[in-house]
Amino acid sequence: MGESSRVPALRNGVRILRQLARHGGPMPAAALAAELDLPRSSVYHLLAELERDGLVMHLPEERRYGLGIGVFELGTAYSRQEPLARLARPVLARLVDDVGHGGHLAVLHGREVLYLLEERAPGSPPLVTEVGVRLPAHLTASGRAILADLASAQVRALFPDPSAFADRHGVGPRSLSALRSVLADARSRGYATEQGEVTPGLASIGVSAHDHTGYPVAAVAVTFRQEAVGQARWPRLAARITRASEELTRRVGGVPAS
């Protein structure tokens, strides 16, 4: 293949990645072809190439394609130079200093959350949310905070059937209807919670931060021993986490979710 023929393919591959990023969730190949005005055969070929390089992942049960871990790897290389993690670090540090509990920053990756930052508080319990760790989004406060701000169709695409619901300790939503109920509660309160669904005895509160389109790009969360923080104190703690997420939203040039 000559150089001139490679350039259009490269451009169209980039267009596919950008379209998946704008959509905010996995898409069928036919929808990609229609929205980008490309032949289906070309789109399938480009998706196969992108999948081989880890830039796209295929979800066979949903017959959809989403961004792959390779995109995150490129993104983290960029973030090491500046954006999200660096902008969030002082925000998270101030939050943890104020509340006295460990905190973290996470982003959504498929049906999981990926932890970008962790800030330990003196005497706080060890967490499983170390940098680079991935956990099922539907079980974590961070994941629920982000999922609650996604469109219903996007959540349905991520969790199409019971097989999509990973289990850690036998608790947490195991169906789309149960997850929607959890997310509705989070939207009603303005923050998401989890109690012992990631680690028995620990609870978390999470609030999402948004980009310039209002899309939930990350979540700020605090984790604590359930016995140490009674539920009557959770709204006050959530209010402080909300201020941190709003500060991060401003720092990344974002706007609150509509």
UniProtKB/TrEMBL annotation:
GO annotation, biological process: negative regulation of DNA-templated transcription
Entry keyword set: DNA-binding, Transcription, Transcription regulation
Keyword Amino-acid biosynthesis assigned: no
Xref: SMART domains: HTH_ICLR
Domain IclR-ED: 70-254
PROSITE patterns per UniProt: HTH_ICLR, ICLR_ED
Record-annotated HTH iclR-type domain positions: 7-69
GO MF terms held by the record: DNA binding; DNA-binding transcription factor activity
Name listed for the protein in its UniProt record: IclR family transcriptional regulator
